[in-house]
Amino acid sequence: MRVLIVNTSENTGGAAVAARRLMNALNANGVKAKLLVAEKTSDNVSVVALPSRLRHSWHFLRERWSIFVRCWFSRKHLFEIDTACAGTDITRLREFKEADVIHLSWVNQGMLSLTGIRKILESGKPVVWTMHDLWPASSICHYARGCTHFQTGCHHCPLLPRGGGRRDLSYKVWQRKTQMLSGKSIHFVACSKWLAGEARKSGLLHDQYITDIPNPIDSRLYRAGDKTQARKAVGLPEGKKVVLFVSQRVTDERKGMPYFVEALQKMVEQHPAMKENTVVAVLGGHAEEVTAQLPVQAIPLGYVSDVNRIVQVYQAADVYVLPSLEDNLPNTLMEAMACGVPCVGFSVGGIPEMIDHERNGYVARPRDAADLAEGMYYVLCGPNYEELSREALKKVALNYSQPHVAMKYIDVYEHALAQKNYLL
Predict the structure, then answer these.
(1) Longest pairwise C-alpha distance within the chain
(2) pLDDT score of 423 more than 60
(3) Cα–Cα distance, 121 to 99 (Å, whole number)
(4) Residue 373 in contact with residue 364, Cβ under 8 Å?
(5) Over pLDDT 90: what percentage of the chain?
(6) pLDDT, tens digit, 9 for 90 and up, residues 214-256
(7) Which of 17, 84, 171, 339 is the most buried (most CB within 10 A)?
């Protein structure tokens, strides 16, 4: 079986990481998988790039400009909206023609247009689409943030100036997506049970196949290690509790930094000794912008692309805290757990599917900084830290290993192929 995975980026963002890991998992389990990206940055022979980088850049700029105009020249939500009004027709590529299954991943920001996706559907090849967020099931947003319009038909989008209107941009893109899917079938795979549940509510996908499969992780790379050696390698102090916060952009409002700051303040107020024996490591872009807000010693590690160094950062931590306000199945949680680090997060999205409360970490009430503080203290100073760590490793081995995830996807591919053959 030959599978072509399509993702905008090879390395940037959680979806890119997941797509690359899935490609490796499939190739290790009997499937010939390739990854098609806008721009290739590695020497991996299984990764191929679009034929024209310049053309992709033009598609990207064209879409951003059209959104910029409709946002009244405001950058506030410029990268939270995608319309897929421009993209490359990949059906002419050799890799597309050779594939038995086309597997769409995160294909926004000029990679594929809605017209291009319709051409893929009309090619007759079975299509599987991994949902890393809600965009395939909504109109222009990636996260609904409490909006329920995607359940019946998008309009009055809260991401548009003054809440859009009855026939705003979200309404128009919704109509185009409806036309794109008309009479066609896609096997949608959500990365979490939460997202699968949201997708089933969508007015766009009411007659589509929807299931859930988690992202895979290479546990040979992400693994537990010696904390002392790891801290020496990444420049973190010994003899202190290390709290880790990770995000591609740590100032991203959705990642909940204000709640993290408040939770640390509450923990220090309730347990004054923690102020001197705790250090926070912040991994990600713009880390230096937030460390001054933290009530304990904080070390900005910045954005790191070296995977081995990222693993060392996880290995150096005592607890990983992810106070996301909305999230799917965060790769960072999986990575931390694979390194034996108990995790703390809010009960939102797919997070409670990953963290088993008081078994391998702590699940706090959404937007409750006091409960988040309780969770951090529970992990750092509770009597069963070693058990929490062992359970984190066990959870990854049982649910997120490459063979486990690859076999689940192979079942979906075979189902899609059988359905396509039946229709023929």
Answers:
(1) 70
(2) no
(3) 14
(4) no
(5) 90
(6) 999 999 999 999 999 999 999 999 999 999 999 988 888 889 9
(7) 339
Tokens in use for 287?
């880390």
Report how many helices (DSSP H) and strands (DSSP E) the chain contains, helices first: 15, 13
pLDDT-wise least confident of 107-111, 162-166, 228-232, 347-351: 162-166
CA neighbours within 13 Å on the CB side: how many for 367? 4
pLDDT higher than threshold 70 for residue 422: no
Length of the chain: 424
pLDDT tens sequence across 138-161 = 999 999 988 999 999 999 999 999
Q: 47 - beta bridge partners?
A: 35
Q: What share of the chain is helix, strand, coil (3-state, %, to 5)?
A: 45, 15, 40
Residue found by looking up tokens 């996908």 in the block? 205
From first CA to last CA, the distance across the chain in angstroms is 19
Instruction: Give the Cα separation of 382 and 242 in Å (integer).
Output: 15
For range 322-332, the mean pLDDT: 92
pTM of this structure: 0.90
Which residues are paired to 141 by β-bridges? 81
Three-state DSSP at 3 gives strand
Cβ atoms of residues 226 and 167 within 8 Å: no
Environment class of 124 (CB within 10 Å of its CB; exposed 0-12, middle 13-18, buried 19+) = exposed
DSSP, collapsed to helix, strand or coil, labels residue 43 as coil
Provide CB contacts within 8 A for 242, sequence distance 6+: 231, 236, 278, 279, 280, 281, 316, 317, 318, 319
Is the pLDDT at 109 greater than 80, yes or no?
Answer: yes
In three-state secondary structure terms, 318 is coil
CA-closest candidate to residue 345, choices 259, 235, 233: 259
3-state secondary structure of 73: coil
Does residue 306 sit in helix, strand or coil? coil
Strands 209-212 and 241-249: unpaired
